[in-house]
Amino acid sequence: MNYFVTGIDTDSGKTLASAILCEALKADYWKPIQSGYPRDSETIESLITNRVTVVHPETYLLKTPASPHASAKIDEVEINLERFIIPKTENRIVIEGAGGCLVPLNDNTLIVDLMAKLNSEIILVADLYLGSINHTLLTIEALMKRKLRIKGIIFNGEENIESQNFITHYSKLPTLLHIRKEKTITPEIVKHYAERIAPLFYESTNAR
Q1: Any known ligand binding at 152?
Q2: Looking at the annotation, which residues are catalytic?
Q3: Which residues bind Mg(2+) (predicted)?
């Protein structure tokens, strides 16, 4: 099973969550669309310590840090959904999206359409800020409306029990992990969280 990591906003913590998942599962990493520098692929390479993970090249590497559709227009590139093909590997892949699920790729296509094409289980990263309940539930509703499979939620940031409890109660989705606000992000921090989340994936695999 491959996993598609999406967020409720641009700065939800998708890359950190993806690094943790790659470390926990020793999975490969793929960022289909990168808008601007530094590349998230380089961040992943700097944070994981296992020797199994392979970081695959982006399908579209755009120069401007903006929405993919806007960045592509500046670069005079047309993003074509059919060009996105999951890299060949015998390993699982953690796929990191760009922004949230309704971010546009072009005038007619959204990130959520890419999710559907890649047919991977979705992991939603929700940072905890004022208004995050609304944004998280709207994202979940958009995913469920399209009948996409959601593995669960990774919360990111200062703990907010009321928000977390309501989101999980209303959505009926499990909390996979809570990443607390860390002063610095290091490979040791990533490994710490990887050890916490790994059993959830291996237990579900064994249950099958």
Answers
A1: no
A2: 31
A3: 15, 40, 96
Give the CA count within 13 Å in the CB-facing half-sphere of 10: 8
Q: For residues 81 and 105, is the Cβ–Cβ distance under 8 A?
A: yes
Rounded-to-integer distance, Cα 46 and Cα 62, Å? 21
Domains of the chain (ranges, CATH numbers): 3-201 (3.40.50.300)
pLDDT in tens, 129-184: 999 999 999 999 999 999 999 999 999 999 999 999 999 999 999 999 999 999 89
14 annotated as belonging to a binding site for a ligand? yes
59 annotated to bind ligand: no
